[in-house]
Amino acid sequence: MDAGRPYHLVITDALMPDVDGFTLARQMEADKRLGAVNVIMLTSAGLPQGRSRASNISAQLIKPVKQSDLLDAILNAFVPRAALERSRERRPRRRTTARQRKFRILVAEDNPTNQKLVLLLLEGRGHRVTVVNDGRQAVSKATERVYDLILMDVQMPEMGGFEATAAIRRHERDVGGHTPIVAMTAHAMAGDRERCLAAGMDAYVSKPLRAEELLGTVDRVGGQVGREEPGRNGSPGDETHATRAHPATGAAGADVVSASGPLIDGGALLASVGGNETLLREVVSVFLADTPKQVALLDTAVRAHDAAAIASSAHALKGSAGLFSKAGAYDAARALEQAARQGDLTGVEVACEDVKREVARLEDALRSLLDL
Ligand code: MN
Fold first, then answer.
1. CA atoms within 13 A on the CB side of 105
2. How far is the centre of ligand 1, averaged over its atoms, from the C-alpha of 185 (Å)?
3. pLDDT tens, position by position, 255-294
4. What CATH number does residue 269 fall under?
5. Within a domain: residue 145?
6. How many domains does the chain have?
7. 294-336: per-residue pLDDT in tens?
8. How far, in Å, from the CA of 291 to the mean position of ligand 1?
9. Residue 212, exposed/middle/buried by CB under 10 A (0-12, 13-18, 19+)?
10. What mean pLDDT comes out for the span 160-172?
């Protein structure tokens, strides 16, 4: 308790030799460094309950303790005490569900449009959010302080999401704790879930991100303590992923809207951001501001015949464009990224022109949809 790394919760048995649980709680209460740490007391039936109750005891549970009661007690321990007391006055025995909880969340994502979307969605739910641009910064932040949840893009410059997760898990082996990490992956293929779990992640959401899935996963995983067992607790979303056809699997022909068809389904787009038009406008603004830079980078990379740089720019364009439409720009950028990753630069100039033309169409369509 004294090592400079604060614990946020102490779960203690009431009956212990030398210093019993209640004495421990009172000693902690009297210590200004430990006074704010919550204590959950495990007691036995037949013992006087609530004996010399210290103010830092957030719950007393009678053994044997049911998992769900312990989880509730842990969740309640992290509701600010004043708020809890207010709610007790109004509605005794009110339960705080995971859905209502506000988390401190670290987001590691290199794509500015995705960053903006995730930030606005999470802040809209009252979460406190820190955004970093790559895995290296994520590791550094995650070892500085404890977050309730980390959202981790898989593909990032400097250090990718799998590598960053491994580094964070190594750190946790030294200092204890387990921060839930949710992967954000553009692959969305069967087996992705297993790969993310194997890398030490707790869950994943697929890109292009959708508000409902992202927020649902944050509520579910952030409310958990400790690691989700693989194969258990799968959300309906996870089931869908394992089987959902995706462009990368070659099964998406039906998704692609013809060049003469509507490029953007306004209703579906709005639904994908939870029906929040203000949020959609902000995300589109970031896209329109960031895209010319990405296109310029792509141009430079193509002129230099730099396959890695081409793949990286195409990946970025694919990631942002895919938020708005799976046709056109997303498809063109995906094809270019794949070719560049395989080191195939034949026809790269033509492919690059395709991407630029499709990106321009998407920009126009978004501007006219939102009257920008
Ligand atoms: Mn990325």
1. 31
2. 8
3. 333 444 568 888 889 998 989 999 999 999 999 999 999 9
4. 1.20.120.160
5. yes
6. 3
7. 999 999 999 999 999 999 999 999 999 999 998 899 999 999 9
8. 15
9. middle
10. 95
